[in-house]
């Protein structure tokens, strides 16, 4: 048997599964390799002949499944049907409203350069506003290359005072807490929480305010997920403080991503059926093999069974982070209708509940939906005409908010807010057709059980007007100007009981695999499935689950690479060490400068802060810190360094 056929083919790569090396029997590239070599199209065989695809959920995962079924699987669009309980595509990627009633976006999305699945898909989707032949990726690059993102007021306190956020503010012991977490095995972190591991001082540092507000982590949530996030965004860590590591879209997430992708799929014949809530899947089981034979759904309020042929494939979303959203406005607080420990049979969690009742291979959904007090937060969308609020915003922004360029550069977080409140203004207009004199702001908070600093109520009990008053308080807008602000501002609220449910503490087996063991024609997608090393709560991770499902069910010899390999890049590790050390040289860094300062590899080192000190003097200073003032030890190591440098010079001459 040849090496090529004897080695099992794995669609989902896992870099941490073992050591990889070049050898004759290893025809596949490095597990986390990205680039043009991974853009291969599997040669079309009979993998889609006579088959149909049913996709449950029209969020980014469901739309991505349709995209990859067509582009890489060769399936015809007319053989793909997307089912959705709502009457609009996009799932949690929403954006709606008008200037008269107010706009609303329940949440936002931050991107970085290595969302490789996202860009893989959107480089093949026609741009929203550029001419034919230009992609969403082309449009995104054109915008962000010309208008780089950064923030000048990332953290604030004391009613409008910008807090120094130039460093993470971690003590040496706190730095080691973070480093030790990076070194821990994933298998050792089941069901542990962030506050189980980190010290109280760490959870009050600049780092934690920057981190938790950017990613929406709560102290009582999964330490494992935080570890995965640390690896995933290690290359971005030196841009967390001023948010220069991020790239943002021109418009809201629905107009930017969902609209062009849906247009692309519909042109190819994909059908979308709305008002269809799927509650269960009929299955047959034989010798450990499970096959979906029917989809049970409520269609326009009537119970239906959609037959599924044995050759057909089904893609289903498990759980929903925006299910059960309660809405409020300027004069009304949201009214929660979901139970605190069970969402009920008419929710988007019902399908996963019913699957889990069939077998443990489908995971344990209750771990995620079972305590909304720990997974809930609220957001508000502000539709603003000129007022003292927009004037204050202008003072805190990188560019004129009405210029179409970067405004706040991401969220501004109030570190002394009892709610841990944040506010942001993205590029304007944020909606297609938005009037030129209107700005759309977004505000959210993490803690739902604390009274506000200005308004003595928890955020969920507040009207839009009261939340606006709390925001103005933290921005330092005087009380006598509040009525002028309220007269020119509309607030629409969204209280989401499950918005961070994917971060709840979990253990092995709580989340099902994309293709659960023994399933012949079912793939699960979204934020509540298990992948090798990826995180949750990103568009990229949702798309990854769809790709894994498509390639696996269709039997395609095409792999989905592991997360971007930048976490192993020596440049990433060095700059991360410097950043975690409050932008000061980390232990050993001056020695590296002495060793590499005049070699080919000098460029991997951050500049030393004291330019007046020679690298030799800096290295000797650092050695003294390590070894004390003992002349013999210092001379010995100094001589070794000199010999290494001379050897490197000699090698470069050859």
UniProtKB/TrEMBL annotation:
Name the segments for region: Disordered. 1-24
Q: Which residues cross the membrane?
A: none
Tell me the Pfam families matching this sequence. MCRA (PF06100)
**GO molecular-function terms, A-Z:** FAD binding; oleate hydratase activity
Taxonomic superkingdom:
Bacteria
Q: Which InterPro entries match?
A: FAD/NAD-bd_sf, Oleate_hydratase
Gene Ontology terms: biological process: fatty acid metabolic process
Q: Where is the composition biased (Polar residues)?
A: 14-24
Q: What is this protein called?
A: Oleate hydratase
């Amino acid at each position: 048997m040849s090496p090529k056929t004897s080695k099992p083919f794995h669609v989902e790569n896992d870099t941490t599964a073992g050591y990889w090396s070049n050898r004759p029997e290893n025809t596949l590239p490095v597990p986390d390799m990205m680039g043009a070599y991974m853009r291969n199209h599997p040669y079309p065989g009979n993998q889609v002949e006579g088959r149909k695809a049913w996709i449950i959920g029209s969020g980014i995962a469901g739309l991505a499944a349709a995209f990859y079924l067509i582009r890489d699987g060769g399936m015809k669009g007319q053989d793909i049907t997307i089912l959705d309980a709502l009457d609009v595509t996009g799932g949690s990627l929403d954006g709606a409203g008008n200037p008269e009633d107010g706009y609303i976006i329940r949440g936002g999305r931050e991107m970085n350069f290595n969302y490789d699945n996202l860009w893989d898909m959107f480089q093949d989707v026609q741009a929203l506003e550029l001419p034919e032949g230009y992609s969403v990726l082309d449009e995104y690059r054109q915008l962000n290359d010309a208008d780089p993102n950064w923030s000048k007021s990332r953290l604030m306190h004391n009613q409008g005072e910008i807090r120094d956020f130039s460093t993470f503010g971690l003590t040496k012991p706190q730095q080691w807490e973070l480093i030790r977490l990076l070194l821990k095995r994933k298998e050792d972190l089941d069901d542990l929480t962030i506050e189980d591991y980190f010290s109280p001082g760490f959870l009050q540092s600049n780092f934690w305010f920057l981190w938790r507000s950017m990613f929406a982590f709560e102290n009582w949530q999964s330490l494992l997920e935080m570890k995965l996030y640390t690896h995933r965004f290690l290359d971005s860590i030196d841009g967390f403080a001023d948010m220069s590591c991020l790239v943002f879209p021109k418009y809201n997430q629905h107009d930017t991503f969902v609209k062009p992708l849906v247009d692309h799929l519909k042109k190819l014949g994909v059908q979308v059926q709305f008002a269809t809530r799927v509650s269960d899947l009929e299955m047959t089981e034989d010798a450990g093999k499970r096959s979906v034979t029917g989809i049970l759904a409520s269609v326009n309020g009537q119970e239906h069974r959609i037959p599924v042929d044995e050759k057909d494939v089904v893609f289903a979303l498990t759980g929903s982070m925006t299910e059960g959203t309660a809405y409020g406005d300027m004069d009304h607080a949201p009214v929660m209708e979901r139970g605190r420990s069970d969402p009920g049979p008419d929710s988007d969690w019902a399908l996963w509940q019913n699957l889990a009742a069939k077998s443990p291979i489908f995971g344990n959904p209750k771990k995620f939906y079972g305590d909304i007090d720990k997974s809930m937060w609220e957001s508000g969308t502000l539709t603003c005409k000129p007022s003292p609020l927009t004037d204050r915003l202008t003072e805190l922004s990188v560019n004129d908010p009405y210029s179409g360029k970067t405004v706040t550069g991401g969220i501004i977080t109030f570190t002394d807010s009892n709610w841990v409140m944040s506010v942001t203004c993205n590029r304007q207009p944020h909606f297609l057709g938005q009037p030129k004199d209107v700005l759309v702001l977004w505000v959210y908070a993490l803690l739902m059980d604390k009274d506000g600093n200005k308004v003595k109520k928890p955020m969920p009990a507040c009207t839009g007007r009261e939340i606006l008053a709390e925001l103005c308080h933290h921005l330092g807008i005087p009380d006598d100007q509040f009525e002028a602000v309220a007269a020119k501002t509309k607030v629409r609220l969204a209280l989401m009981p499950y918005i961070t449910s994917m971060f709840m503490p979990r253990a092995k087996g709580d989340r099902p695999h994309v293709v659960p063991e023994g399933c012949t024609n079912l793939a699960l997608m979204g934020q509540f499935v298990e992948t090798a090393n990826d995180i949750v709560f990103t568009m990229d991770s949702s798309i990854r689950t769809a790709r894994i499902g498509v390639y696996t069910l269709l039997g395609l010899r095409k792999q989905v690479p592991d997360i971007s390999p930048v976490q192993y890049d020596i440049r990433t590790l060095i700059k991360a060490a410097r950043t975690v050390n409050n932008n000061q040289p980390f232990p050993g860094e001056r020695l590296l400068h002495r060793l590499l300062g005049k070699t080919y590899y000098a460029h991997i080192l951050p500049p030393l802060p004291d330019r007046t000190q020679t690298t030799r003097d800096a290295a000797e200073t650092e050695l003294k810190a390590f070894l004390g003032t003992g002349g013999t030890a210092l001379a010995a190591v100094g001589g070794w360094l000199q010999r290494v440098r001379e050897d490197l010079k000699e090698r470069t001459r050859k």
